[in-house]
Amino acid sequence: MTTPVSVQIEGDIAVITIDSPPVNAISAAMRRGLLTASNDLAINEDVKAVVLICAGRTFMAGADISEFAGVMAPPELRNVLTVFESLPQPIIVALHGTALGGGVEVALAGHYRIADVDAKLGFPEVTLGIVPGAVGTQRLPRLIGAANALRMFLDGKPVGAEEARTLGLVDEIVTGDLRAAAIAYAKRLLAAGKGPRRVSEMTVTPLSEEQIAALRAQARKQHKGIITPELDIQAVRASWELPFEQGLAVERAISDGSLGTPESKALRHLFFAEREVANVPGVSKADVPREVKSIGIIGSGTMGGGIAMAFANVGIAVTLIDVDQAALDRGLGTVRKNYDTSVKRGRMQPGDVDQRMGLIKGSVSYDDLKSVDLVLEAVFENMALKKKIFTELDRVCKPGAILATNTSTLDINLIAAVTRRPQDVIGLHFFSPANVMRLLEIVRTDTTANDIVATAFALAKKIRKIGVLSKVCFGFIGNRMMDPYGREVERLTLEGATPAQIDAALEGFGMAMGLLAVFDMSGVDVGVKVRMERKDELPADPSFYRASALLFDKGWLGQKTGKGYYRYEAGSRERLVHPEALALFTDEAKKLGIVRRSDITAQEIVERCVYSMINEGALILEEGVALRPGDIDVVYTSGYGFPRWRGGPMFYADQIGLDTILAALEKYGRQGNPDYWRPAPLLRKLANEGSSFAAWQASRQAPV
Ligand code: 3H9
Fold first, then answer.
1. Does any ligand 1 atom lie closer than 6 A to the CB of residue 275?
2. Segment 111-137 mean pLDDT
3. Fewer CB atoms inside 10 Å of the end CB: C or N, the chain?
4. CB of 636 within 8 A of CB of 481?
5. Helix ranges restricted to H, 360-437
6. Closest Cα to residue 136, out of 251, 264, 267?
7. Whose alpha carbon is nearest atom 19 of ligand 1?
8. Pick the catalytic residue: 10, 45, 125, 276?
9. Which atom of ligand 1 approaches the CA of 279 most closely?
10. Mean pLDDT across the chain, nearest whole number?
11. DSSP 8-state code for residue 564
12. Which residues on neighbouring strands pair with residue 428, listed in sequence order?
């Protein structure tokens, strides 16, 4: 086996090269290699300076996250870095790509740092629910000040090379050959008679309690539900309250402890799940993605406009089609307004607006789609209309063009069947606002070709979204699981829980927004109209999604009409009590013979909503609609506001225990409508075996 650490001696300079593709994650072999190299160099009197550099596309992207789940093999990185830092020769660390977490901690143990002009440096640990553990919390405050250090730990986002230099994190920025520049830097140091400059020997100015409080308040907003920011503060506090050695011990205890928290397990699960989603059995490297340089979008409404922005933002030319010029003008006007808002909020430069608008061309003629590489239909949910559009697209689009639909509910097999190229038809289900939301459901039909699936994943990455594959079924993964969730929140309003009580319970669980507030925000009519389209398939139960239907009949469609589940003052999104809606629900309960209860607890609300969703998730897995439990978790955490720190519904189910979930499903089945609470066979089987979704998935992946 080749070692990831090698040492080349060039005159009186030793160059340590780390080479462990793809991202130089810090493995046990790397730690051993660096320790051996450090011990050897410490006694090599011919070596006057040491350079550390990484091969490949990036400097170390941090500790190897897959090691965190078990007992880490020795030596520990923190101990290796003590030896490394104490080398008698000056150490120059040369950074490029994305130096993250443990990677930056290695750099901090060096004595001088230079960085490629495009390098980024950061501490993403907080996004994994962990506290830096290779002495970063003690060294970084010494180098760049405690406030800047805490800001980096709490924010989690990397800074560019220029900012890193301003902060004092790097000493010099390099354009061109980094290795040569590092050696030249070392020679300059030697010529100037400079020796080691150890960060551990520097001092830290304490932060005031007010400064800490301000940083804490910001972090609480940014990272809801997790204790990691508080642990970061504790660890950094030790950097000025204690001598370095003792601070190191404090960090060790805090960082090691953070690895065991439920939130850290959940966030690490998502880290790997988000990378696993693009792995589609049967689709291989041989399925080369088609090139997509230009796209057409049918429909310039909220969805079409948002999707146009998502593509224009990465430089892809868009032809936006609508039925007439007035509709187009409205659509393009909204896009411009959204961009202008981004400028006002400082998220975009004014010059960018014209550049992006320049990429979006409006048209009322399908003939303008002749040469585009992909067309995405984003009109309202009506099968007859969609079939008509696809027939027309089949006529005008060039051979090899991909024909995609943004439908969220309809059977894409039927849409594909009206074309002469069903193999080129796919669902690309965006989430509103499409230029912001990270999720893209990629829906493959019975006939979609493998290279089209590969193209969809490549495109998702290009527009900075996470693509998750779903098979065709009503609602695909996300909306199908919303069906029981919505059913329960609506039923609860009839049973006596107020919208405020229901949403507070869901938000207390960690949902980004309670579902009734979501209905009000997106429009109560949206779901009602979808159910009208499928009325023949719905259960005979008169209480099924009854609350929304009642509001719809009254014209109370949510925020846009000032009334819905809540009441809103003009121009405000604040949810106020809507007594008329409450009276409506009470009357309806009476009519339907539903007993109103005053003892509905937050626990019952959460269990009924989340467990029914998990049960549907189990059916989705059995049917093969989703490839893996982790895929469902990614859908829910990146598209539906499910708390990331709970890892997604299927991961959460495993933590609760499937036997507990099964017992609850059976209990609610006895209390309510047994048809709604019938446990999915997979869930029942795994619960009875004392197993979990994760174990089930692992057994399916294990080689036979
Ligand atoms: C840490 O350092 C704690 C310290 O305090 C030390 C305590 C002792 N580990 O994302 P990509 C894999 S915590 C293991 O598709 P990109 C990834 O799974 C760590 N594996 O590429 C994928 O594998 P596969 C702090 C890792 O170009 C492949 O590399 N560091 C790690 O889009 C390519 O990844 C982080 O949180 C890792 N650390 O983005 C950095 N990193 O091909 C997390 C990547 O089998 N990483 N892999 O699917 C990233 O942010 C991105 O991967 C990066 C590259 C920006 C580096």
1. yes
2. 98
3. C
4. yes
5. 383-396, 412-417
6. 251
7. 62
8. 125
9. 48
10. 95
11. S
12. 442
Ligand 1 centre to CA of 262 (Å) is 20
3-state secondary structure of 296: strand
What token pair was written down for 349? 């430069």
Q: Is the pTM of this model over 0.85?
A: yes
What span, in angstroms and rounded, lies between the C-alpha atoms of 639 and 274? 13
**For residue 157, is pLDDT > 70?**
yes
At 702, is the pLDDT very low, low, confident or very high (cuts 50, 70, 90)?
A: low
- Distance between start and end Cα atoms, the chain: 26
- Which residues have CB under 8 Å from 97's CB, separation 6+? 23, 54, 56, 57, 58, 59, 61, 116, 118, 119, 120
Count the alpha carbons within 13 Å of 48 in the hemisphere toward its beta carbon.
Answer: 14
- Nearest residue by C-alpha to atom 22 in ligand 1: 275
3-state secondary structure of 170: coil
97 lines ligand 1 (CB under 6 A): no
Asked if pLDDT for residue 2 goes beyond 90, the answer is no
- Burial (CB count within 10 angstroms: exposed 0-12, middle 13-18, buried 19+), residue 553: exposed
What atom of ligand 1 comes closest to residue 132's alpha carbon?
Answer: 5
Query: How far, in Å, is the centroid of ligand 1 from the Cα of 62?
Result: 7
Q: Is the CB of 64 under 6 A from ligand 1?
A: yes
The whole-angstrom separation of Cα 177 and Cα 406 is: 46
Task: Give the side-chain half-sphere CA count within 13 A for 384.
Answer: 1
- By residue count, the chain amounts to 704
Distance in angstroms (rounded) separating the CA atoms of residues 648 and 656: 12
172 is catalytic: no
Note whether 60 and 93 are within 8 A (CB).
no
Give the position of tokens 């919208």.
499
Top mutation candidate among 27, 30, 65 for ligand 1, by most atoms within 8 Å of CB: 65
Residue from 653, 656, 646 nearest 682 by CA: 653
Show contacts of 495-499: CB within 8 Å, 24+ apart.
495/589, 495/594, 495/595, 495/596, 495/597, 495/600, 496/589, 496/596, 496/597, 496/598, 496/600, 497/600, 497/605, 498/577, 498/582, 499/565, 499/566, 499/575, 499/578, 499/581
What is the mean predicted confidence (pLDDT) over 661-674?
96
d(Cα 496, Cα 60) in Å, to the nearest integer? Answer: 55
- Over residues 229-241, mean pLDDT: 98
What is the per-residue burial (b if ≥16 Cβ within 10 Å, else e) of 122-158? bbbbbbbbbbbbbbbbbbbbbbbbbbbbbbbbbbbeb
- Positions of E strands within 431-568: 439-444, 466-471
Estimate the share of the chain in helix, then strand, then coil, as percent rounded to the nearest 5.
55, 10, 35
The string of pLDDT tens digits covering residues 443-499 is: 999 999 999 999 999 999 999 999 999 999 989 999 999 999 999 999 999 999 999
Name the active-site residue from 10, 45, 67, 105: 105
656: phi > 0 → left, psi -120 to 50 → alpha, else beta; which?
Answer: alpha
Q: Radius of gyration of the chain from Cα atoms?
A: 28
Half-sphere exposure of 82 (CA within 13 A, CB side): 11
pLDDT at residue 1 in the model: 55
Q: How far from chain centre, in Å, is Cα 368?
A: 35
Q: Say if CB 514 and CB 488 are below 8 A apart.
A: no
CA of residue 125 to ligand 1 center, whole Å: 11
Question: What residue spans of 6-100 are helical by DSSP H?
Answer: 28-42, 77-85
Whether ligand 1 lies within 6 angstroms of the CB of 80 is answered as no
Banded model confidence at residue 68, pLDDT cuts 50, 70, 90: confident
Count Cβ atoms below 10 Å from residue 336 Cβ, excluding itself: 16
